[in-house]
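User: C-alpha cells for this one?
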Amino acid sequence: MTAPLYNTEILRLAATIPHHQRLPDPMASVEKRSPVCGSRVTVDVDLDGSGRVAALGMQVRACALGQAAASLMGAHAIGRTPAELDATRAALTRWLAGEGDTPPDWPGLDIFTPALPHSARHPSIRLAFEAVAEAAAHASTEKAA
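Assistant:
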C-alpha cells in the first residue's frame, strides 16, 4: 500500500510556514510560479558579511505540498550559502525526477516521497527551493558589486 499524498505532517507544515512576512528592504527578491497549478512563492533574502542567508521573508500562495515545501525550506535556510541552496535545489529536482533513491540532504524532504509518482505536483514542491536559491544568488551578486 502506498502512503497518502496529503497527510497530517504535510498539513501541519503547510500551516506553520516560518518567515511568512516579506522583508522591508531585501538585498534580493524572486517570485516563482508554477504554470501547472498556479502556485506562487515570493522569497526575499538578505545575506550577512560572510555571504550566508541572514534574513528570509516569504509570501506563499500554493497548494498544501508547496506550502509544506516552503515551510521546510524556511525552517533551514538561515545560515546557508547561495551555493548550498543551489545544490539543494538541484538535488531536489533530480530526486523528484527519479534520478536518485534518497531525498536531498535537507531536513524533512523525505515527506515528499509519496509525491514522486505525481509529476504534476513536482513544480509546486520545487518552487520555494528554486526561489530561495535564485534570490540568494542575486543577493550574492549584488553584494559583490
